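Q: what sequence does this backbone want?
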């Protein structure tokens, strides 16, 4: 069944780029843009609608939160933008109050019980957990973008460095979308060939470091990410819309994997029409498992501070 996707923050750079990626994908039925600046959302919706003749027959509108009760997926991109020298977790005090107000608006809108809440706003792992607990929403119906963007950056940078086809590079960033994320070299391949046989240890370290710092680099150069994050958002939404059972590194609540519980972070996660189907515990190197557990500890500590 075709889906309706509502984007909270649809007038902003991330939300509007996500809408454009969804329009180009031609899979979802309806895209509703919601923004505190309604006129901006109307302008973005109008601009997108003008391309409908070439792109497809979707319905693209500007809406208010009260109008999105029938949404199948609510994608939340609104929030304060990260500064170049600021970690994602430093955003928490500025963004939590904004995010709670959005959640209250969603509660008031009386979303249908099987709607999927897809969090993109940062710090995404903390806000994904907040969405579950503040709304008392089923955990399988709430997910965050997690390390999707970090993963596509990682794969694309590897491809660029070695002149490889980016679509054939398979390498993951897992854990927190932030300072403690972990590059997963144990399963990294290109066309089935281990990347550790192609890249030296120094190259691996440099590429992982650049991928982790790419967000700050983009902010410094152009003010904020847009195109790549829009594509990453569309990849997740299309996996849900088509019930693809794709395994993607999205943020979801863990329930014992690698000894971790309660926090939300990115593991290889099966997605389908019902949302999060399964977060898998795959075989990793011991140092990679330790990296994930370090992410969990950092996120738990942040959550504890949030609730003091």
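A:
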């Amino acid at each position: 069944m075709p889906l309706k996707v509502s984007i909270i923050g649809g007038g902003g750079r991330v939300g509007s780029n996500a809408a454009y990626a969804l329009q180009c994908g031609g899979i979802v039925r309806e895209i509703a843009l919601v923004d505190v600046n309604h006129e901006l959302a109307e302008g973005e919706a109008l601009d997108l609608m003008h391309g409908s003749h070439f792109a497809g027959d979707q319905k693209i509108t500007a809406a208010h939160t009260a109008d999105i009760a029938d949404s199948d997926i609510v994608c939340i991109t609104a929030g304060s933008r990260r500064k170049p020298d600021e970690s994602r977790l430093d955003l928490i005090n500025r963004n939590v109050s904004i995010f709670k107000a959005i959640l209250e608006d969603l509660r008031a809108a009386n979303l249908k019980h099987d709607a999927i809440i897809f969090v993109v706003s940062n710090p995404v792992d903390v806000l994904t957990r907040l969405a579950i607990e503040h709304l008392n929403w089923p955990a399988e119906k709430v997910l965050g973008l997690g390390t999707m963007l970090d993963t596509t950056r990682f794969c694309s940078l590897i491809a660029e460095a070695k002149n490889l086809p980016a679509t054939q590079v398979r390498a993951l960033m897992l854990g927190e979308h932030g300072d403690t994320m972990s590059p997963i070299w144990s399963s990294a391949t290109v066309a089935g060939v281990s990347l550790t046989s192609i890249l030296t240890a120094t190259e691996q370290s440099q590429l992982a470091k650049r991928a982790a710092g790419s967000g700050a680099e983009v902010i410094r150069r152009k003010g904020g990410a847009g195109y790549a994050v829009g594509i990453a958002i569309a990849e997740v939404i299309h996996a849900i819309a088509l019930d693809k059972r794709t395994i993607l590194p999205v943020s979801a609540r863990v329930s014992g994997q690698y000894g971790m519980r309660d926090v939300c972070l990115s593991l290889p996660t099966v997605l389908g029409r019902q949302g999060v189907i399964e977060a898998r515990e795959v075989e990793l190197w011991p140092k990679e498992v330790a990296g994930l557990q370090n992410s969990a500890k950092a996120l738990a500590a942040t959550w504890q501070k949030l609730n003091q």
